[in-house]
Amino acid sequence: MYIENCVLTGLPLHQKHYLDQGKGFLVEYNHRAVGKVRIGRIFLQRMLNENRRDHVLAGICRNTNPNDEPPIINDDFIRNGINDYIIPKEFEEKALHLLKYIYDNGGKAFKPISFNSKYDYTIAYSEDGNELIIILNRLKERHQIEFTTFEPTPNEVIFENLLLTDKGVNKILEKNPQILMIDLNHQKIATGIVNLDSKIETARELFFSTPESIEKMRSACETLIHLLEPLRTDLEKYLIKKDVNTFFQIVNDFDIRHNKAHTKTIEYPEQLEWVFYSLLNSINLYVKLKGKLNSDLKNIMNYND
Q: Which residues are 149's β-sheet partners?
């Protein structure tokens, strides 16, 4: 038995993909429109039987960081795992997501990129290429992007020399205030303790991994909380004790670690953005103050590899 089309998009595969029963429950293949796909055999068979496509699952796979493995698509993922992903559903959400993608992939440096409506509609979690065309044209009407087009085949539009305008950049900065913290995010926080520095970098990579996931962002915040808590007493040497206590109380009022009662439920990524940057900035401040006072950080932290 074999498949000739991507089960998520219906687009033809480069070559037939044989479903060798000896390879277990998982089927893997690559496609231009979705990147790498990992799907449970039973779930795949059900999609084939129902002859259905899924633009949301296609979008999740396409938006996965190339350095990461996409999720295994099966019944458990549909019931539980998919809830951890931040998925644009409404038109304006898709438009903003696409604008952010352009910004991250050359747009912030005003470098041109291109889109093919046949294969790249998955980037915006669009239902099909026509919706991507509408989104891009709408962004152009708003003077947030500019481009030229041509149609190599019917129902296929190539968008070339696509550039963000100043209005487009301002829209991204307006809707994604964490970008304004870019200097902090890329600033090297060097404590001199290899294990600690490594955990800080791991937390940053996890928080900004794609596609966005509430669970990954939460885990990154939890890592920084764990790193910052041993500094609490020492922070009171440089800051007002009441302010330090208030800061930790606010952070702990968010449901970061699952095991705390009477906490504020995390519903939106913006909540975790505030927590993450507050924690990262606090660690950065502490390291700078310790450096200025020429103290021995290792004696305070007492971290072991």
A: 159
pLDDT at 293 (0 to 100): 57
pTM above 0.70, yes or no: no
Please give the residue that has the higher pLDDT: either 12 or 301.
12
CA nearest to 213, candidates 102, 8, 55, 60: 60
Rounded-to-integer distance, Cα 241 and Cα 63, Å: 44
- The CATH number for 91-174, chosen from 1.25.40.20, 1.10.10.10, 1.20.190.50, 1.20.140.10, is 1.10.10.10
How many angstroms from the chain centroid is the CA of residue 117? 23
Which range of 46-50, 210-214, 244-248 scores highest in mean pLDDT? It is: 46-50
The residues, any chain, with a CB within 8 Å of residue 185's CB and separated by 6 or more, are: 178, 204, 208, 280
- One-letter-per-residue 3-state SS of the chain: CEEEECCCCCCEEEEEEECCHHHCCEEEEEECCCEEEEEEHHHHHHHHHHCCCCHHHHHHHHCCCCCCCCCEECHHHHHCHHHHECCCCCHHHHHHHHHHHHHHCCHHHCCCEEEECCCCHHHHCCCCHHHHHHHHHHHHHCCCEEEEEEEEECCEEEEEEEEECHHHHHHHHHHCHHHHHHHHHHCCCCCCCHHHHHHHHHHHHHHCCCCCEHHHHHHHHHHHHHHHHHHHHHHCCCCCHHHHHHHHHHHHCECCCCCCCCCECCCCHHHHHHHHHHHHHHHHHHHHHHHHCCCCHHHHHCCCC
pLDDT digit string (tens) for 212-229?
A: 788 888 888 888 888 888
